[in-house]
Write a structure and sequence with these properties.
Largest sheet: none
Number of helices: 4
Number of strands: 0
Order of helices and strands: HHHH
Oligomer: single chain
Structural class: mainly alpha
Radius of gyration: 39 Å
Shape: rod-shaped
Strand content: under 5%
Amino acid sequence: MNPKTVMWNEVVNEGIFLIICYHMVLFSNLIWDASVKAAVGVSLIVFLVSLLAGNTLFIAMISLRGAKVNKRAAYIKKKHESIMNERKEALDVLKSANTLNKTMFKHQNLKEYKSNRLVFKHEVQKIKSCTNDEVV
């Protein structure tokens, strides 16, 4: 949660709490008129409800953000696992292809090997330097 948001929430809570305390002081026989006491009572109830509703909404907002973050984290974890599984399968395929190519290199003569397989630059030099008898 953003510290600035938390700070402002606490400032508003303290302000409302001070207003509620002021209402309590007014009820200690400072006001004698019944209609003014009723208005102060209604005002007190409004501030109490606003304090409770504000804090409830604040807690709900934090909970929803947390749920959203958890849902996103679960999605990213699931996506990461699928990518890692695909990568592992691709590496297994490359390993088996490499083994197949090594086997093919051992059992074919040089011209067939060169025509049936993708040859990388460093291998071209090796093939050019080798003769058919030296290829193992």
